[in-house]
Known about the structure:
The chain has two domains: about 1-55; about 55-155, Sandwich (Immunoglobulin-like). The protein contains one helix and nine strands, in the order αβββββββββ. The model has no long low-confidence stretch (mean pLDDT about 90). The longest helix is centred in the N-terminal third of the chain and has 44 residues, at about 10-50. The protein has one helix at about 10-50; strands at about 55-60, 65, 70-80, 90-95, 100, 115-120, 130-135, 145-150, 150-155. By secondary structure, the protein is α+β, with helices and mostly antiparallel strands.
Amino acid sequence: MFGKKGISPLIAAVILIAFVVAVAGIASTFFTGFTKEQKAGVESKGTTVVNCADAILDLDKDTVDINTTAQSFSLVVSNTGSLDLQGLRVIVFNSSAAGTCIPSPTSVSSGETVTLTNSSCSNMPSGLVSKIQVTTTTCAGVRSELTNQSGTWKKTA
C-alpha cells in the first residue's frame, strides 16, 4: 500500500522461536534456583524431624518444688532420648494464666538428668499451680508435663 514491505514469514518464525527459547531459558534458571532452595529447606526440616523422633524429656513428679510467692522452682528432668536438647523452658500454669521461665541449666545431654532451677521467674503466675511443662527449642513438640491433682503431681500423657 504505501510501498513498505513486511518481514518474511520465515524471518518472523525464526524471531518468534528465538524469543520463546530466551523466555524458556530465563524461566528455567529461575525455577532451578527456586527448586534448589526449597529442597534444601525441606531436607533441613526433615532431618530435624527424624532426629527429634528420638528426643524424650522426662519430668520427675516426686521432686517438684514450686514457690509462686518467691517466684522460684526446682525440677528434676531427664533426657532419656538419643539427642542433646537445648533451649529448655519451664511453663508454669495456674487456672487462668501461664508464665514461661528460663531455667538453669538450659540444656540437657542425652542420658543426663539435671535439676532445673530459677530463683527469680517474674513471669510465673501467682496462686495454685495447676500444671508445669518443660519444653525445648531444639525439637518443637518435645515436652514433659505434670498436672497438679489435689496436691499430687501426675504425669500428663
